[in-house]
Each structure stands twice: as C-alpha cells, then as structure tokens.
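Fold these two proteins, one after the other.
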Amino acid sequence: MVTCGGILLLLLLMSAVTIYRTKGVFVLTNTQNKTRATTPTCEKLMQSSKLYANGSFLTSKQTRIEWKLRPDDSRELTLPDVCHLKRYTAAQAGQCLKNKNLLFIGDSLTRYQFTSLSYFLDHKHWPKRFHASLQPCTHISEDGTPACNIQDEPSVCTNIDWKQHWAGYYQSMGGGIDGDVFHGRMETLSARFGDEFDTIMDIMRYTSSEEYGIGPSRTQLTFIMEAGTRGDEPFRGFNFNGCGYNATCRNTPRQYNRLEERLRLK
C-alpha cells in the first residue's frame, strides 16, 4: 500500500530537485504536460478503482514514465498512460506528514531532497532551484518569477552560495546565531574539512512547528549521509538534543568549530 507520505516523496522528486537521468523515458520538451488535462490524479485513480487501489503501479516497471522539462529547467515525473501526480501545497503536505517521522539516508542528492522538503514545510513554498551566481538569472519559475536566489539569500540546495563554504552552510542550516534559515528548528551535527568522505560528518534533523503536530508528536525529518563516518566506530545514536521543538537550535562559529574538532580527532 502506498501511503500519503510515500506519494509525497514521489512528489518531492518531481517538485524539489532537478533529475538528470532515469531508467524511464527521458523527454525534454518545453510544452505543457498534456496528461494533466486527460488523466485523473493518481490519488483519485487509487480511490476509484480496485485495480489501482494499492498503488503498486506507481513503482511498477510496467508503468511507462516520462520526465517533462519545465520552464525553469527542472524535470517533472509523469505517468502519461495512467494518471498524473498531485502537486501538494505546503498545507496539504504538512497535513499528510503530520505526526510522522521520515529518515533520509543517502548522498548529497538525498541531503538536498531533505533540505528542500524541510524548507517547503517551514516556508510554505519550495526553495529557489538555482544558485545566486547565475546572474542575470535566465531560469523562470512557473509563476513567472526568477528561479535563482539573489546574492544575500543563498540556496539551501547548494553549498557553493555560502560564505565560508561548508562551515557557513552548516551553521546557517543549524540556526546560526538567530535561528537563520529554518528559524531554529533545524539541528545539525555536521562538520566537514577537505574533500574526502572520511572527513565528513553530516547529520541533520528538522522539527516542524506545532502546526504539524502537538508536542513531541509533530513532524520530524532526519538526514544522515551514508558516507558520514569512517565506519570503524560504534553507532551510539544521533545525540540530538531536541532544540527543534522549541526553535532554539543555534550553530555559532564556536559550536561548529567544536564539531569540526570532534571530527578531526576520530
């Protein structure tokens, strides 16, 4: 059975990140996706037909998929022969994920899916897709506005915008000195030096406001990078302190330096 959360994660792939390759059919087109006018939403199809009720067709190899190019150069996952995926508003996504915990494990692509969804829940809209160095911005969102960040609003989906590179990125994600990007609701246990995988510690957790759940039952998203440790030390848990619940997460330069030193000593 494909749950609301499962469908939302499929939505994340089509709405928050740019996909460059797939085992399905890769279609680059600037035309509007005509399947929206001729097919039901996949949600309605599952509700109206016993044949599709369990949602297994969404991940079946027999279901033809196409990646359609949007005006802002992102790709939209479509199932042209069956249905079209619902595009959730922030309120709908928050309701779908209310009182749920999601764990993301993977590489940098997974991290940016995690930060995109966290940003969507926190800011009520998706982050800009392209970094600030692309000026003038030639990418346009579906609402006609530029799809690039401006210089003083770095992207949560790329580290190259940030002053001090990784240190600036992790500090801002984790609250900086005033709550920063996620208003104090993102706790980071992340540090990095050099470019080797064994110099990375990348663990983050976003806790939603009480709009998406009451007390400790509210929505939480956690990310851990699959190459985030050397691999020879025992796992002792995430060691999060829960600052996201009351929006007090802060990651000052001093705190980040402590994390980096901890990593260097491993």
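Now the second one:
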Amino acid sequence: MAKIKKPVETMPENTMPENTMPENTMPENTMKDTGNKINGFIGVGVTLTGKLSFNGVLRIDGKFTGDIDSDGILIVGQDACIESTIKVGAAYISGEVKGAVEASSKVELIAPCRVYGDIKTPKLIIHEGAFFEGNCGMQGLVDSSIKQLPMGK
C-alpha cells in the first residue's frame, strides 16, 4: 500500500496570521525612532475610558477617551479614535484625535490622520494627506545663535 502525501499549506511570505498586530502603517523612520519595540497595545475593537500612563512605546488602534500622560512614545494607528488631552514625549498619529496634543520632542501627522485640536511641540511634521485643524505652538525653538529679524515699522 502506498501512502498518499498531502501537500503542506504554507503562508505567503508577506502575510500575517490572524490575531497578530495590524500591518504597520507608520513610515519607516517611526519604527526606527521607537527601536522597533512596542511595550503596550490597545487593539481594534477595544474601548477604554480613563487616565492612561505608560513607559516606553504604546500603540493605540482602538478607542480611548480620557487623559494620556507619559514621557514615552505614543503611536496612534489609522483605526484609532481618541478623545483626550495628550502629553507625551513624542506622538506619531495616523488615526483620529480630538483634543490637545503636547509632545516634548515631536509630533508627526501621517495620512490619513485627522487631528482636531491644538498641538504644542518643538518639532511638527505633517505628511501629505494628513488633516490638522487647530493651532500650533512651537515652544523651545528660540536659539540665541539665530539672528532675530527686525520687526516692520
């Protein structure tokens, strides 16, 4: 009697099995900035309300309402919906944020993000296709070595 071998099903190279993190929608330099390590993750379908603090890097792809306060890096995935006052070290936003965003190092707005609120940061990067409605304060950028231009009379 001959044994019939069944073909082994293999997954195509660039696919992810279900129940893993969603495909990375961030620009390549974002993952370099975070050291390619995410310490916490709030997934699609998760809704949280309250005060959120974290160390390291947190990615949100779900819904959050409340306050976010950390010295770490916040990544807002394109499926995220956040209503919050955000104070972080750095923020990479590709989802929807309603509320003030303050980052001590930088804020990067990545398409198709929608940000409704004021941003305070020394470095703001807005990619083509990103939407921002609010005011921006670039605190911490006054350099004494830069010659000030005289104001008009």
